[in-house]
Design brief:
The structure holds 2 protein chains of 2 kinds. Helix content of chain A is about 25%, strand content about 20%. Chain A is an alpha/beta fold. Chain A has 2 domains: about 270 residues, FAD/NAD(P)-binding domain (3-Layer(bba) Sandwich), CATH 3.50.50; about 200 residues, Cholesterol Oxidase, domain 2 (2-Layer Sandwich). In chain A, strand 8 and strand 9 form a beta hairpin. The relative contact order of chain A is 0.19. Chain B is globular and about 60 Å long. At the A-B interface, helix 2, helix 9 and helix 10 of A face helix 5, helix 6 and helix 7 of B.
């Protein structure tokens, strides 16, 4: 038997989108509005962030970070936790490029507005470029090599406070330095009276605005606090529902709900497919200490790729290298001498790439690499190899045959690194910038929501996460998600009188 | 998956795995077993099927099962699968390879062995 509860506003998800909406709507609590955040993942205590790779990946990420696309050729990384994926990102804080927002061509969404809102969250989250003494060799070599190779290298503002340089951002900051929604927006919302229930998965939304929610028990020996609610099934009634469960969670939830959804629901999925490339230097460098991601090269517009500094953990590094056996082991044993670069392809919405649900209601991600996306990865790999060699690397490990490129190969990268070696199933492609599925647009004929995240035909249902993006953003997305969520919250405040009129049910 | 097939694949993917003592080997197999158990039933069945295929496929070319081949021939078989024209085979190999790498490099002893030294104290731990 399920328990019934009623709220005025229910926010599903607590990441960059849900956390922002919760904070921005929190002042309504003073007026008697009851607001609830439902988060599928648990709330972690500070001391639970140990930095141990498999332990933290299992605790924080969906499927331990290995959620597979339908054809099994790419893994998608997204977190399930109080704070959503803001717990596991590196905090890189960029504003959406004007050309991208112009190309989105969404009536009512202007770049200036998004820029202003993004700036508000960049300031709130303390986004700033790190001081030089905190930059490690892995990042410094990227700057030196990039400039020598003729690339414009830019520094990321990162949203940290008191970063100690653990390099463990992607496993959850063990020093609470990263200013995700779990540190900034959600605690503010809770202090203002917003209720948060963790381990609470929304299974479906009924047309009468009732949510079927399952609260799970904390399993013995696992991390995270028990839910604030007793384990079991709930029927939660709401007047306004904000879906902010991420670009996989939100489309899947709406698809398994008996709602009159627009035709394009689930379509337009993009994800910046990414490859990790490593190179070996003749001497040890500082790589597994210091903030891992401080610089980038943006060739999205001209060549469909972005390069970023990165540093990963032993297993992720091992699976990212191609090949196996003695040659693979030799690279792994060179870990203290390894420099790493992440190559992100700027993919675009395509009819094949979409979110669906299985018969059991689980999300299924259909994704095929278009020739243009593969070309972005190939070009990005060549560019990364140029940077590695210009930085003094002795050899570069890349998708090639054989995979080790020696300095003598630097002059023939076009010949050594070709699309032939980038066939699906031949290399470890993963993605963490998951976007689309509930795209904004003009009407139900071409999109799921309007420019304020209102689902066409269902004014009480709003979307506030990266699923709103009608196409790839071509940069790290969290500030843009917050900017859009800020608009969604503003829209709700504007419509609150109509939607919340009368006594709470 | 039989222990002999597992060992044959694991030591081919990570040669150092052959030098693990019994306790370390148990740790590696436990990591892999946990990872498999966490996947959906359908995927578990696919993996079991692929391990069976891995064991018997070399019979066609070498007249012996994978676990009975020497290291050089085992590596040849895995290389063929890695580059197979059929996505299904490449994907299967990739999945098995990933599990073996997780089992080996997911151990804290392996992290230390390769010189990985990340520490929550960050810069302070290095000065």
């Amino acid at each position: 038997m399920s328990v019934s509860r009623s709220y005025d506003i229910v926010i599903i998800g607590s990441g960059a989108g849900g956390g922002t909406v919760a904070q921005e709507l929190a002042p309504l609590v003073r007026d008697g509005v009851r607001i609830l955040v439902l988060e599928k993942g648990p709330r972690f205590a500070d001391q639970e962030f140990t930095g141990r790779e498999l332990e933290m990946a299992d605790a924080l990420y969906q499927d331990g970070g290995a959620f597979l696309t339908r054809d099994g050729t790419m893994t998608l990384a997204f977190a399930s936790a109080y704070g959503g994926s803001t717990v596991v990102y590196t905090g890189t804080s960029l504003t959406a490029p004007e050309r991208v927002i112009r190309a989105w061509a969404i009536p009512g969404l202007g770049h200036a507005d998004l820029k202003r809102r993004s700036a508000k969250y960049a300031e709130q989250n303390n986004a700033h470029p790190l001081d030089d003494p905190l930059i490690n060799d892995n990042n410094r070599l990227f700057v030196e090599g990039g400039r020598k190779a003729g690339y414009l290298v830019e520094q990321f503002p990162v949203n940290v406070k008191g970063c100690r340089g653990s390099s463990l951002c992607n496993l959850g900051c063990p020093n609470q330095a990263k200013q995700g929604t779990n540190r900034v927006q959600l605690p503010r919302a809770e202090r203002a009276g917003v209720e948060v229930a963790t381990r609470a998965e929304v299974l479906r939304i009924e047309p009468d605005r009732t949510l079927t929610v399952r609260v799970s028990q904390k399993a013995a020996g696992t991390k995270g606090a028990p839910s604030e609610w007793a384990p079991g099934d709930y029927q939660v009634r709401a007047r306004i529902v904000v879906a902010a469960a991420g670009a996989i969670g939100t489309p899947a939830l709406l698809l398994r709900s008996p709602l009159p959804a627009p035709r394009s629901l689930g379509h337009g999925f993009t994800c910046h497919p990414a490859l990790i490339l490593v190179a070996e230097h003749p001497h040890a460098i500082t790589n597994d200490v210091g903030h891992p991601k401080s610089y980038f090269v943006d060739h999205a517009e001209s060549e469909r790729f972005v390069l970023e500094t990165c540093m990963y953990f032993p297993f992720v590094t091992a699976k990212s290298l191609t090949g196996f056996g003695a040659a693979h082991s030799a690279i792994m044993h060179a870990f203290p001498r390894l420099q790493m670069i992440l190559i992100l392809a700027c993919d675009h919405a395509s009819p094949d790439n979409r979110i669906a649900v299985s018969r059991a209601g689980s999300p299924v991600v259909h994704y095929r690499f278009t020739p243009e996306t593969t070309d972005g990865l190939v070009r990005g790999t060549r560019a990364a190899a140029r940077i590695f060699f210009a930085a003094g690397a002795r050899r570069v490990h890349a998708p090639a045959d054989p995979p080790l490129l020696e300095a003598a190969d630097a002059g023939r990268l076009e010949e050594r690194i070709t699309a032939h070696h980038f066939r699906p199933g031949m290399l470890a492609v993963s993605a963490a910038h998951l976007m689309g599925g509930c795209g904004m647009g003009r009407s139900a004929a071409d999109s799921v929501t309007d420019a304020w995240g209102r689902v066409h035909g269902l004014p009480w249902l709003r979307v506030a996460d990266a699923s709103l993006f009608p196409d790839s953003l071509e940069i790290n997305p969290y500030l843009t998600i917050m900017g859009l969520a800020d608009r969604v919250a503003e829209g709700i405040r504007r419509d609150a009188r109509d939607l919340l009129g009368g006594e709470p049910r | 998956m039989t222990p002999s097939v597992f060992r044959a694949v694991a030591t081919c993917v990570v040669p150092e795995a052959g030098r693990l003592d019994a306790a370390q080997w148990d740790e590696m197999t436990a990591i892999v077993a946990r990872a498999i158990a966490a996947r959906p039933r359908g995927m578990q069945r696919q993996l079991a099927l692929f391990f069976t295929l891995l064991e018997w496929l070399p019979l066609l070319r070498y007249g012996r099962r994978l676990s009975q081949l020497d290291a050089v021939r085992r590596a040849r078989v895995l290389h063929l699968l890695q580059r197979a024209p059929m996505l299904l085979l490449r994907r299967g190999f990739w999945g098995v390879r990933t599990l073996m790498l997780m089992g080996y490099y997911g151990r804290s002893a392996a992290a230390a062995e390769i010189g990985y030294r990340a520490d929550a104290r960050g810069w302070e731990a290095r000065r």
